Amino acid sequence: MENTATLIKPEAMIFDMDGTLFQTETLLLPAYHKLFDILREEGHYQGETPDEELMLGCLGMLLDDIWKKVIPNGTPAAHRRADELLLQLELEGLNNKTGILYPEVKETLEELHQRGVRLFVASNGLEHYVKAIADARGIMSLFDGVYSAGEHGTASKVDLVRLLLDQHNIQNAWMVGDRSSDVEAGKENGQTVIGCQYAGFGGEQELKGSDVVIHSFSQLLKLHDQAE
């Protein structure tokens, strides 16, 4: 755990979903390969399936931006069909028990909830996807709110977190996430940022600007203990 700041105990913690709470690749990659099989069958895509690492490197982005990188020459119709298929296939996977949380996520969230910390999710994903994960993995009841770009139509995570803070009148929160968009969302809104480095989707500079970097989710409890 890399601590570069004296932390204040938060009234709330705001979590990214993919790469922070949820091991996205355990659900995403099977769906990803099926998606391209269907796109080829329907005539929306030709050639080999793009490398998995390209998709994993886009996690945390808005879907529009993901497809611009993964299918740069795809038509708008192909990109919209990819949206539909990804959601459909991932929801099917969740129903079939595909996809898991990171170690100790549920237990840590339960303990933070017991301590009176208000818990939220802020994700750039689609509404049904984000909420389905929380439902399927038994953590939905722990959150005061689950916010997604898909539901609120926000252009950035900065805007999504600002909306969340305003709607719940939160002054002091920890933004917990694994991508630069999470760091930006926390800092632009004047909040503490806890960077998560256990997923490994981003490069070395991904979490630059975080107040603390953790290497396992359960380290949040120690940080909360130590905070003033």
UniProtKB/TrEMBL annotation:
UniProt-listed InterPro entries: HAD-like_hydrolase_sf, HAD-like_sf, HAD_sf, PGP-like_dom2
SUPFAM superfamilies: HAD-like
Highest taxon of the lineage: Bacteria
One protein family per Pfam: Hydrolase
Biological process per Gene Ontology, one example term: DNA repair
GO cellular-component term (any): cytosol
GO molecular function terms noted in the UniProt entry: phosphoglycolate phosphatase activity
PANTHER family, per database record: PHOSPHOGLYCOLATE PHOSPHATASE (PTHR43434)
Protein name, entry field: Haloacid dehalogenase
